[in-house]
């Protein structure tokens, strides 16, 4: 169950992710950020609800739409923004960019951009934890598009066959880039696929942070108790384009507008206000704090140095001391 | 002491499992079956199913799991039955294992060893006869090894496991039954050094893996004609020890590169280009290559033999570069 009194903190984290990504989009249009930039605006409740259910000793492996996952896991917004800028102060020293945020200290194992390829990584992390007797759960986040990849099926089979402590979290935002779930899955009920692997599964409203947290806690507890892996499908929606720009020819504007009525931040704010946990002043405080944090992140990224070109070949291999 | 290549691989695996509790061997039929090439026979009984783990036919899944297990603190040895099947896992090897250290800004290393059989010669047709180690040698972040002798088969694995980054080991499938003298391990056992397997002064034959014995046989025949060939076993395909190759070419002034892969864009092309780049003025003749014919490896014995590098072709090519064609 959600921890009483944490509501304001959950809201703060969701707002931080939202404002961080809005600012990233702005800096992208100014040419400060290049390449791919995939925003998860609309999907913040999953990142925050999931991370609330994990401990620092757990592992997280994520997809390329992972700014929110990294921030909710505790990565400093400045370090994340610097990585988007490609600066040496970025978490991956400018080697990865938006799609490849990594944070060893927080056991955040990336940031992976080959759809589906990190599900086996999660299986291996869980195998190591089990074999080394470490009580870690490995949470693996992916989108509905990954469900069409063979690696999804290989990974679910391996994890279940070996009863590994993996929480597979599918952020089902209905579109694999521009292809609707109904056009890429013969069985669009993603959670139902777990049956084929004798795996427990649950479906949760991905626009409700407390529902996500509750479902994730329940799954994590079962996994820690030795129940084997769990598939959690969080139903959500991406308010923005797939990458920074797409013509969005594949979905009706009306559909986007309807989902925006279920904005996870607006919903949770209203709930906290109704419950008397948040006053108008309190909300303004949270907003101000988040805006200041994002402004500081941008300032940090702007002023951070570039990796020297002389270090181009660094970190292809691990330095070995003879 | 005489031993087979297969026994040498098995002894290396046993050493690795005995020496470090974090080492696990995983792959298709490595456990109860004893390995497709019988390299792990007996190891399941000795080390149990957690250390010697049978996997489903999910190459991408279990190579990826090996990567994750390495990130998580184990020292996995993943056996992909053959290089042919590794193409189902090439995404994991190239996009994950090779890239994660650099892409994470040095935060994560992937201490993973992947072993696989390579090569042709068993009349198992095109889908089981590839020699694609050169593809992997193309990729920064990987170390690619090719043990050609029983001694290397015995000891390269231990050195590979001491590497902090991913290492691929290619074992030529024709070598498993070969029996030869197991030499004591030299200390340190440097996997990055090419080795002169036969000293000579007239022409340098550069090769690796399953072609080494052909090159040595060719050298013996050339000796009968009064041609003294030097034979270099590359051992490591990435990085390439060009210093050893160039030192030999400086002495012999002639080079033939023998590689069971295809000629076009292949490993032999890389070695020949580097000799041309860095040893051009030592050369008295153009560098020559002996590679597989540009055809999928056929099933029928006479066709397969014709497709692969042969002792006769190596001899003839060496004679040509010496002007004795």
Descriptive labels:
heterodimer; A: about 325 residues; Rossmann fold; about 45% helix; about 10% strand; globular; B: alpha/beta; 2 domains
So, CATH architecture of the largest domain in chain B? 3-Layer(aba) Sandwich
Q: Name the structural class of chain A.
A: alpha/beta
Report the sheet-strand fraction of chain B: 15-25%
CATH C-level class of the largest domain in chain B is Alpha Beta
Q: What's the helical proportion of residues of chain B?
A: 25-40%
- What is the CATH-assigned architecture of chain A? 3-Layer(aba) Sandwich
Number of domains of chain B: 2
Count of DSSP strands of chain A? 8
Give the topology, please.
The complex is a heterodimer of chains A (322) and B (325).
Chain A: H1 7-29, H2 44-52, E1 59-62, H3 67-73, H4 77-85, E2 108-111, H5 118-131, E3 138-143, H6 150-161, E4 166-172, E5 175-176, E6 179-180, H7 181-184, E7 200-205, H8 209-224, E8 230-235, H9 253-260, H10 264-274, H11 280-303
Parallel strand pairs in A: 1-2, 1-3, 3-4, 4-8, 7-8
Antiparallel strand pairs in A: 5-6
Helix pairs in contact in A: 1-2, 1-3, 1-10, 1-11, 2-3, 2-8, 4-11, 5-6
Chain B: E1 2-4, H1 5-19, E2 23-27, H2 43-47, E3 52-54, H3 59-71, E4 75-82, H4 83-86, H5 90-97, H6 100-103, E5 113-118, H7 133-137, E6 143-145, H8 150-161, E7 167-172, E8 179-181, E9 195-198, E10 203-207, H9 212-224, E11 229-233, E12 236-238, H10 242-252, E13 255-262, H11 267-279, E14 288-292, H12 301-307, H13 311-321
Parallel strand pairs in B: 2-3, 2-4, 4-5, 5-7, 6-7, 10-11, 10-13, 13-14
Antiparallel strand pairs in B: 1-8, 6-12, 9-11
Helix pairs in contact in B: 1-8, 3-5, 9-13, 10-11
